Amino acid sequence: MLQKTPQSEVKRSANRASYRTEDLYPIIDDLKMAHICFTQDESPMSIPMLCWRVDNAIYIHGSRGSRLIKQLTNGNKSCVSFAELNSWVMAKSAFHHSANYRSAVLFGHFKAIDNDELQLTIYKHFVEQLEVGRWEHIRLPNDKEIKATQLLQMEINEGAVKIRTGGPIDDPNDLSLPVWAGELPLIKHWGDKIVY
Fold this sequence. Notes:
- The mean pLDDT is 96.
- This protein has helices at residues 21-31, 67-72, 116-130, 143-148, and strands at 17-18, 33-40, 43-50, 52-54, 57-63, 78-90, 98-108, 111-113, 149-155, 158-164, 182-185.
- The strands form two sheets. Strands 1, 2, 3, 6, 7, 10 and 11 form a seven-stranded antiparallel β-sheet that branches. Strands 4-5-9-8 form a four-stranded antiparallel β-sheet.
- It is globular and about 70 Å long.
- By secondary structure, the chain is an alpha+beta fold.
- It has a single domain, classed as Pnp Oxidase, Chain A (Roll), CATH 2.30.110.
């Protein structure tokens, strides 16, 4: 279970909230893209990055000299968010239009992983999540590449999931209006390989 704190508790449409890791893990595993949020010089920053999960931790990586890596390892708290749009929800009134989605927000601290062997293990997890068996066929990172890249880990402890499914919630007086209501689904799937 995720820790529910005044910071992470969902208050608006709380019936759509979950604090169960069983609802969180599939969002991270399916999307592998997150917005990493932090404060720099009292200004908010948000950077979209690849992000993947191994057990109960998320990982990101970047250049050791980058602003992002320096800010995330300075001891300050970070916020990581995921969001997936699944359909537009079309109502009979403008006010009740909505969207079906899956989203998650996590709070915590990133720490640097400096053990080379552990880094390779975590990178292998990422590549194998993209295509099973690929790690055995590609060139592994060399010492120069490992030294140039910093792997960061955040344990999954505090946060919330919010999911909306279903159709529009129209007012009873609007149900007779001569306009269709329902969903416009967003169909997503991976295509065939394009080999270069």
